[in-house]
Write a structure and sequence with these properties.
Blueprint lengths: L1 H20 L2 H4 L7 E2 L6 E2 L1 H10 L3 H8 L1 E16 L5 E15 H4 L5 E13 L3 H4 L19 E13 L4 E8 L24 H4 L12 E9 L3 E10 L20 E12 L10 E15 L7 E14 L2 E2 L8 E10 L10 E10 L9 E10 L8 E12 L4 E11 L10 E11 L1
Antiparallel strand pairs: 1-2, 3-4, 3-19, 4-5, 5-6, 6-7, 7-8, 8-9, 9-10, 10-11, 11-12, 12-14, 13-14, 14-15, 15-16, 16-17, 17-18, 18-19
């Protein structure tokens, strides 16, 4: 396994090196070689070649016309800490996701929209936070509380979604992840550090049954959306063993000794009507409750049933690039989670914020630059007090299917005790999409 991971690492680095030498990152334009016509010896220009490609849709486009969509993505996080932490290390973490979505309205000639989706996930590599000794995991590949091991193939999603009222109302049920719809933002996705990525770690670390890729659970979610409002509600089966390595996402049982998690989220979309020209923003809040049994942090012989919390989020664009249609510019954001039962929640208070700028550099309109700060206050039942994470990255959108994201992180008070030196983390994230 160690040799296999080394081969993966060398292959990834070699691929990036070839791209760099090819001048991919220079002007933002990939130079394509001229193609020789097979029927005759003349050379077809790049422009004509592009016209021919447009005339003949690819395999995926032909499938989508029939109502079948397929997708896959591979993400590699290559990160190391040159200073600080319990020890110095360089780690690879990789994730492969794949799936298909069927539009049953087209396939079965139904009157209303009905979507069937199935997806899978495979994770590999090592978690750098184990070398550093901190809670905020540097690589988002291991962003589910380290409840799963490397090299594990899982079924993730198996769901049906009904769309009504011109797709303003949606009902989703099946094996799904709570974090796909709740307590999330597209801005969070710009970060590699788990404290920010996908969902605030203040929820993931406390609600052990909070599910997000690669772990799913039985659930039901309703969504109603207008030009200005987005209301979400759901109920999910709560079982903290679903992330175990031997489950592979195929444990469909419901146990009587486990619980349920109802959740409600209300969001306001500012300046997002088609005819509005002001800077867009998003403001939302959520409340959630988990009926499961929780052990007392300070005394494992004590326990209580029920855990609850609150989530707040706001983002507001403050500057837009001229003639960008509000698609490029600067957007600050702020989010917080509060779970006041300090006897059962390791991080009862969590706060994060940051700046995301799309198109910061000339001729790199699709690139995104992000800076974030995360603070987690530990329970008074723990030895530590708090941990902080800082992250600065820049995502190069090389092509529509390839992105490269150099990343710098700084961990303040790893583990919260002050006994472990602060750590610098350097590396990059590579993402391939199909």
């Amino acid at each position: 396994m160690r040799n296999l991971n080394r081969l993966r690492l060398l292959g990834t680095l070699g691929f990036v090196a070839v791209l760099s030498l090819s001048g991919v990152f220079g002007s933002g334009v990939v130079a394509r070689p001229l193609v020789l016509a097979q029927s005759r010896g003349d050379i077809i220009s790049e422009e004509k070649q592009g016209q021919q490609e447009k005339k003949e849709p690819g395999f995926r486009e032909r499938l989508e016309k029939t109502g079948i969509s397929i997708w896959a993505s591979y993400t590699a996080d290559l990160l190391g800490n040159p200073s600080g932490g319990k020890g110095l290390a360089f780690r690879y973490a990789g994730g492969l996701e794949f799936g298909t979505k069927l539009e049953l309205k087209r396939l079965l000639k139904l009157r209303e929209s009905l979507l069937f989706e199935v997806s899978g996930d495979h994770r590999s590599g090592h978690d750098l936070s184990r070398d550093i000794g901190n809670l905020f995991v540097p690589a988002q590949i291991f962003g589910i509380g380290r409840r799963f091991g490397a090299g594990t193939l899982r079924l993730y999603r198996l769901s049906l979604e009904k769309l009504l009222a011109e797709e303003r109302f949606s009902l989703l049920a099946g094996r799904i992840g709570m974090g796909d719809d709740f307590l999330t933002s597209e801005l969070y996705q710009q970060f590699v550090q788990t404290a920010f990525h996908k969902n605030p770690i203040g929820v993931v670390a406390n609600i052990l049954s909070f599910t997000v890729s690669p772990v799913s659970t039985w659930g039901w979610r309703a969504r109603y959306e207008t030009d200005n409002w987005k209301i979400l509600g759901g109920v999910y089966y709560s079982d903290d063993t679903l992330g175990d390595d031997d489950k592979h996402g195929t444990d469909f049982s419901i146990r009587s000794d486990k619980g349920y998690t109802p959740i409600l989220q209300i969001g306001y979309k500012h300046n997002q009507r088609p005819n509005e020209s002001g800077f867009p923003g998003n403001y939302s809040m959520a409340v959630y409750y988990d009926s499961n049994r929780y052990e007392d942090i300070g005394d494992a012989s004590k326990f209580k049933y029920g855990n609850y919390g609150f989530y707040f989020h706001l983002d507001q664009m403050v500057y837009a690039e001229p003639d960008s249609g509000r698609n490029q510019g600067l957007t600050p954001f702020l989010a917080a989670t509060i779970m006041p039962q300090t006897s059962i929640n390791p991080i009862p208070y969590f706060l994060m914020g940051g700046l995301v700028y799309k198109g910061l550099f000339p001729s790199r309109d699709q690139d995104t630059t992000s800076f974030g700060l995360a603070y987690g206050q530990f329970s008074d039942q723990l030895a530590g007090t708090y941990e902080m994470a800082f992250e600065l990255n820049h995502e190069f959108e090389v092509t529509s299917w390839l992105s490269l994201q150099p990343d710098v992180q700084y961990i303040r008070r790893p583990g919260g005790t002050g006994n472990i030196p602060d750590a610098w983390i350097l590396g990059f994230e590579l993402e391939l999409k199909y």
